[in-house]
Every structure is written in structure tokens, then in C-alpha cells.
Amino acid sequence: MTSVSDADVIIVGSGPAGVSAAWPLVEAGVRVLMLDAADTELPASPTHATLAQWRADPHRWQAEIGRDGALADSAMSPKFATPLARATLAGFDTAAGLSTRDYVAIGALAAGGLSRIWGALAARYGAEDLAAFPADLGPHYDRVARRIGVSGGDRPDPAALTPPAARFAARHMARRDGGFDLRAAPNAVLVGEEREGRGACTACGLCLHGCARGSIYHAATELPALRRFRHFTYRSGMRVERLASDAGMNVVEARAGAQSLRFAAPIVVLAAGTLMTTSLAVRRMGLAGRPLRLESNPVGGIAFLMPHLIGRALPDRSFGLGQLFYTLATDAGVEAAGVFYGADTLPLAAIADRLPFTRATALRAARALAPALLLATGYLPGRFSDNVLTIEEDGAAGRMTIRGHQTDTATGLLRASFAQLTRHARRRGAFGVPGSLQLLPPGADAHPAATLPMGGIGPAATDNMGALTNVPGVFVADGAALPFLSARHPTLTIMANADRIAGALARRLCSTPELRRAG
Amino acid sequence: MTRAAHLIVTGGTGYIGAALVARALREGRTVTLLGRRPGPVGTHHVTWALGDRFPAHIPGQQAALVHLAHDWQASGQDSIAATARLFDGARTAGIATRVFISSQSAREHALNRYGRLKWATEQRIGDATSLRVGLVYGGTLTAMYGLLAKLATLPLLPMIEPHRTVQPIHLDEVVDGILAAADGQAGGVRALAGPQQVAFGDVLRLLARQYRGRRLPIIPVPLSLALFACDMTARLPLIPTVDRERVLGLAGTEPIDSAADLAALGVAVRPMGERLAREPAGRRALLAEGRAFLRHAGIAPTPALLRRYARAWPEGAIARPRLPLRWCEPLGSDTPLGRRLRVAARIAEASAPGEAALAAGSRIARLARLAAHGAYDALCLPLRLVLGRA
Fold it and tell me: NAD-dependent epimerase/dehydratase domain: from which residue to which, for each copy (chain B) (predicted)?
């Protein structure tokens, strides 16, 4: 079979990395074909104006426990236990040929990828991490942040926060103790401005179920704007299974239902999400069977209580995403980072299930505690993770095995950082709830990365441009190419890096005379 | 293979027979019942008794004979001869497919007479199909199934060799198999029993749990003692007689490999636990559980909320404590009871009555109610630490 060129560049994946890689290329006039595995619509998000309306809706149970009762017995984090999250994550394990041990593997086939259910935290790496990064991300952070709309990131404004976070922030600003930095969470949420297809946040508090207004950014919100370019083609329902080469072209083999398709282009950009991208790249490089290091952030969560708020009525409006973002210089000299959330937008079960009371009491107690709780996550840098990913050839789509392991060092550091966080919180009027500290298993942070690190040593690596070692024309633009995971959420960094790689690629392609420029 | 548009059935009013006839009629087949009593509307009845010849004037085209009747009183030789006479007559009448319902216990040297008899009969029916049926459950609470369901209600069950395995198969699945055999899908001697070996004690425990929501303590009894007890029941007045034959039938069943035969007959056998949950008694028990648990979570259960609860548990009811749930709710969610109570709480919370109950009153009133609940909880805690572990 001879392959005809379907585009100058094929991008695999429509998540934050894929979309960020598409913009510089499309704007430079490069013909781009984006292949996306999504083949089903995701469930619609609730359109209630306020949390109070939501709580009063007799049909709310369909979203909270599922029509088939499937969500009723969910031991998962409330973030993953919604119909939207389930639909977003559905089918990934099978498509990836995934098996895991002591690792929670999270991936999505949906349009927009995991950003459909992300926490929208758009943090930049710290100065030290950026200095170690093999390229300058500064201008690319700015470009991406302008594109997606990022609010917060600066001094917290108590007026813009819900009561427990507001009180916490006010008391923080009256203090001065080093090593604990607190800001308004830099969220990819439109506040006080509208954009095409996206409305401003109204603080309806239903963030958990997906934002019906589109105030919370996800990558699929950018697809309509991209698709207006005549030289940008988007094809959904394409599960990319394998990469090959044919007469100097890179070939992408995809499956759409029972049909097999081949697409060819001089350049392929992989942005299918770290796990899927790694599977495609490693098999293309002929490195199947070789164990790869897979970074994830050691992660945990803890609850703080602000006693004077106990028993307040649940608010009509609130905000379900992160409100405050902190970084903590731990005594061990490691940076930890995390986010403070309110608990008043969560289903009560998220709190009640952890309480040792009998159920009727637990529900009442959860209801009384919800307005008074501040929940905090805490992340450590990915270098403290110890996971191994192995890709194997098996049929067209391959197979992947992940063995997760949390080292005692990581567990110790995580515990120490939470102990330190608890001390800082106590001075700000928030008391750690005994027994609330929970250390999550590896992978539960949903930030797998750095399997094909830029500038990495060994054959399974990429260069500073994200180009795969020894495979001409194949670039990695997602988390797989990150050289390391900082303690801070990596999504904005992945997007900035994709923007950087694609920008350089666009410049290179435009200086190539034989490239047919789109009219 | 031709579809048996016309079924000629003996024993058509019995446990399996009635289900077979009802299904055949639903599928648009015509049914002739051979027997003493007429059957349901829509069936044709020919008066006949075991030992009679195959009735004349029954059209043999596209017809199949299914012989379910069994005379527990008749002598062995009479019974075998009667069946042989029926099958010979059916063949002469041009009925191509003849199905004999045998038993999993059919063996030449079976412990029980029934098993030996079924085996001997199989040798006398020529090229007819024989289905060796396992332990059948489901449908109306009669026959062996009815007896087991009744035994499962006992507070304590003395049982002969509870570890001996049986191969349960649902009544609907047996009917699937009989109709497939009647349609000529597979001939010869075939096992129509569940593919899985289940300890007989577990079958009864499953029934107790899924039909009654309770645990069933079983005391193993040696076979010899059980037979002695059977003899005693026969001699003592005023207590029901337990048939020695039934006891031997249970004790004498040998495992058979049924997977290939089930595949040949096209019968898919689901696990017993899953099917029991959908039987009326299983459904009732699950709703009763939902009612108790939702009440424990603090709301009055409505039918809609109960359905919501039931939907979360396709595997049916669990054994729940007889004591008040506040005394024995486990502290964590790592036991089935702990998990289910948490699910009930989720359902309660995400409901209009739950929202109303939780939001009612001023801040002070709500906190006072919580304090009262909490105080009672504190009193119950020592009990829960002991009882909640089970």
C-alpha cells in the first residue's frame, strides 16, 4: 500500500498538549490533521443556576449515584465518581491494553482528554525547576495562559473566596513565616470575561459535574476555533494503534470501529497522553519489552477544620475547584505543593463515608462540617516516584504493564510535608482533622509523565525539540516528553512545552521550500 | 435439526413441566399433555398414565416427546418397562425427537434407587435423547427447590456432608436445554447441570442470604446418623417423615462435566447468586434490606428510593444483623454491611426527603440534633466495636 500525504503534520490526540501543538502550526499555515479517539458524546453537565437549586432537584440522584446505581458504591475520589468522569475515563484501559499492579492508571479517550475532568489548576513551574528545564518556557507560558484564560495566581483576595478559604487567606496575609507561600489558585477559569463559546464563572458551585457554561477550560473548547482554519482537519473516532514508516513518510495506523485506516505525513506529533504516547513511540522505536521509568507525583490529602463555621447552612453559591495554591519548602529541602478546596460543593458522602459514626449521625455531621472544612492536597516532585512502565507488542495496539511503588522516602517526606502544612494551617485558624490524612497510591495524582524525557540518556528519550531518538519526523508534545515532574501541577507546563515544540517545528517547516503552504 | 412445533409432554404439570409448557406456549408451539389431569389453557390434553401405550391419533410431524413424569410408587421394573413402552410407541408414531429427563445421579451403581432407575431406563430408550439434570432451582417454590428454600429458613440446619458438591441450574436454563434437545440440537446422553461445582451447604447458605437476608448456621451430620434419623421419623408419630431416598439422592450425586453439553445445547448458565437475586423472593429480600438500611440512614423509604437501592446490588441481598443497626454498624466500609450502609446513606442524601431532613431548622437546632445523635452514637460505640466486626 502506498501512502499519500494527508497533511504536513499529523497530531495524535486532542487534549491540552495536542491543541497547544496545533495552534502554532495552524497559525503558520501548516496543514494539520488531528486524530482523536473520541467516538461518543460525553453526558451533559447540569445547568442549575445555584447549588441550592441543585440540592433541591429531585433528579440529582441520577448524577450522584447513577441511574444504574453504579456510582453509589464508589470508593473513588468524588472527582472521578461522576457520570462525566466515568464517561471520560471509559474504554481507556481496554484500548491501552493496560494492566497495573499497585498503580492507579488514569487515561481518557474523550475529546479534550483528561482536561474534561481536570482541576483546572494552571500553575507554572518554580524558578529552580525552570532553570533545570532544557528550554525557556517563559514566553510560551504567557501565550498559553492568554489563550486559555487563567485567573488567580497572585495575592489572594478574601472577597473572592468562600468563607473557610477567605478566613485562611486573611490570616495568612497578617502573618509572615517563611517557606509557606500561598496564592489565589491560578485556575484556567474565565472570571469576569467571556470568550467564544465560554461564559464567565457565576460561582454556581457545580464544577465537579462539568461546567455547563464552559468557564472551566478544557481542550475540546478550542476545537471549534481550530476547525475554522481550512488547513486544519479534525477526525474523531480514530484510535491510533501503531506508527510505521513508508517511503520516507511517517504512517499512523488507526482503527475506526471495524475499519482500519492509514494516514501518512512527513511529521507526526504525539499528544495522546503520556501512557498512550509512550506505547506508540516505544513500539515505533523497537524498544518494546524494555522497562521505562514512569514519574508520578506522590500525593495525599488532608482535611482542616475552621471551628467557627461548623453548622452553618450550606451556601447557595460556591466554587468547587481549587481556591488557594500553596508551595511549601519542607524541612528536607524539597518543595511540596498543593491546593486548598472547600467541601461545601461535594456530595456529603465524601465526608460522611469517612466518619466513624452511625449513618444518620454521619450524614448530619457531614452536613455540619462541610461549610467549615478546607481540604488540601499535597504533591511531591516526580523524582520521588518509583514506577515502571513496560510496553509490549501484542496485536495492533500493543499492551502496557505498570508496576507502581511508593518508596519509604516518598511516604516519609509526604507525611513530613503534611505535618508541616498542618502547623502552618493551625496558625491560620484551621485545625487538622485527626485521621483525615490520606496518602494515595501511585498514579492517583493522574499526572503520569517523563517516560521519554527531553535530553534524557538512553534510547527511550527525546531531544530538546521533543523529537524521538532515532526516529526521524516523530515528535512527542505531551507529558511523556517532560524531563521531570515538579511538585506543581504539570498541565500548563505540558501545554507551554507543546507550544514551544510546535512553534519551532512551524518555523522549520515554513523555511522548507518544498512544503506546500496552505492558501 | 427441525424446530419442534408440537411438544408432547408427560409430567407437564410438575415443577419443570409447568415451566416448560408455559414457555413452549409463549414461543407459539402447540402442546399436548399426556397425563391424568388437564393442563393450562391452550394445551391439548390426552388422558394417559405411566404404563399406558403411546396414544394413537397424535400427529408425529414436527413433534417431539418430552418425558418428565416419574412414578415414585411404581416398582423399578414396572417403571422402566412403562417408559420403554412410551418411547417405542412414540417412535412407531413417527416422532423423530424423544427426550427423556434423567438425573445427574443416574449411574449403574448409584447410592439411591432413583439414580439406578434413571440409569437403567436410559439403557432401554434406544436412540432417544437423555438429559441428566442437575439441582434445579428458581420459579415456583415446589419440588426439591421448594424444600431447600424451606430448609433455608431454619434457625439452624443439621446437614449431611455439606461439602459434597452439586451443580445448580436455573429452571429457565433447564427449559432452554429441554427445548434445544426437543429441537434436535443435540442427541445422546447430555448433562444439563451447572458447569460449576457448588458445595451443597453453600447452596443453602445462598438461599438463606438472598431470600431471607440472614446467615444459616450448618451443623454437619454423618450420613449414617442421617439415615438412622430418617428411619426414626418414619416410626415416630406426629413429626413429618423424611424420605431416606431423598437423603441418599443428595449424598450420592457425583460431579459431571457439563460444559461441553451445555455448549452443544446452547444453554448459558449464570451463577446461582446472580439468578436468585432476580427471583421474586430474592427481590423481596433485597427491598427489605433497602428499607431497613434507608431507615437507618435517617429517611422514610419510598418505593422509588428502594428501587434505587436495589439497582446498586445486582448480586442480591446480604445477611444482615437481627439486632438494631445502630448497635452493630461497622466502623469502616471494608465489610459488605459497612459498604451497603454507606450506599444507603448516599441514596438518602441525594433525595428530596434526605435534603429536607438535613436542612431543617436553625443552625442551633441542627447542631443540637447532631449533638443528641452523637451522644447516642457514643453510647453505642462499645457495642459496635464488638458486633460490627462480624
Answer: 8-105
Query: Torsions phi, psi of B327, nearest 5?
Result: -85, -20
CA distances from B239 to B231, B233, B243 (A): 12, 7, 13
Q: Which residue of A has its CA nearest to B307?
A: A69
B residues 348-367 near A, CB within 8 Å?
348-352, 354-355, 358-359, 363-364, 366-367
Report ipTM (2 d.p.).
Answer: 0.86
pLDDT tier at B61, thresholds 50, 70, 90: confident
**DSSP, res B17:** H
pLDDT (tens digit per residue) in A311-324: 999 999 999 999 99
What does CATH list as the number for B6-276?
Answer: 3.40.50.720
**Could you tell me if A42 lies within 8 Å of chain B, comparing CB atoms?**
no
Joined together, the cell numbers standing for residue A451 give 517516560
CA distance A56 to A58: 6
Q: Is B341 on the interface with A (CB under 8 A)?
A: yes
Q: What single-letter amino acid sits at A206?
A: L
Contact between B149 and B207 under an 8 Å Cβ cutoff? The reply is yes
Averaged over B97-124, what is the pLDDT? Answer: 91
Only one residue has cell 466500609, namely: B333
Q: Which residue does chain A place closest to B380, by CA atoms? A: A358
Distance of CA A206 to the CA centre of its chain: 19
- Which residue of B298, B345, B351 is in closest CB contact with A61? B351
Query: Are B196 and B255 a contacting pair, CB within 8 Å?
Result: no
User: Rounded to two decimals, what is the model's pTM?
Assistant: 0.86
Instruction: Give A 354-373 residues with CB within 8 A of chain B.
Output: 356-365, 367-368
Lowest mean pLDDT among A136-140, A349-353, A449-453: A349-353
Model confidence pLDDT, tens digit, residues B341-378: 999 999 999 999 999 999 999 999 999 999 999 999 99
Instruction: Give the nearest partner residue to B346 out of A68, A72, A310, using CB atoms.
Output: A72
Give me the residue spans of the domains in chain A. Answer: 1-40+105-148+218-289+449-513
- How far is B364 from chain A, CA to nearest CA, in Å? 8
Q: What is the tens place of the pLDDT at every residue in B292-350? A: 999 999 999 999 999 999 999 999 999 999 999 999 999 988 899 999 999 999 999 99
Task: Tell me the C-alpha distance between B112 and B105, whole Å.
Answer: 8
Contact flag A358-B384 (C-beta cutoff 8 Å): yes
Query: Which of B310, B343, B369 has the CB atom closest to A364's CB atom?
Result: B369
Which residues of chain B are in CATH 3.40.50.720 domains? 6-276
* C-alpha separations of A221 from A112, A148, A151, A213, A288 in Å: 8, 9, 17, 11, 35
CB of A305 closer than 8 Å to CB of A513: no
Q: Which residue of B has its CA nearest to A55?
A: B355
Q: Which residues of chain B make contact with A358, given a CB cutoff of 8 A?
A: 296, 325-326, 329, 377, 380, 384
Residue among B296, B342, B359 whose CB faces A360 most closely = B296
Judging contacts by C-beta atoms under 8 Å, the chain A residues touching residue B310 are 69
The reported pLDDT for the residue numbered B164 is: 86
Name the 3-class secondary structure at A443: coil
**Contacting residues of B for A54, CB less than 8 Å apart:** none
Size of interface A-B (CB pairs under 8 A): 116
Kindly list the distances between the CA atom of residue B59 and the CA atoms of A231, A426, B39, in Å, as whole numbers in the listed order. Answer: 75, 91, 19
pLDDT value at residue A178: 81
Phi, psi angle pair for A376, to nearest 5°: -125, 140
The residues near B127 (Cβ < 8 Å, ≥ 6 apart) are B187
| A488/A449 Cα distance (integer angstroms) | 13
CATH number 1.10.3490.10 is the correct assignment for the domain at A1-40+105-148+218-289+449-513: no
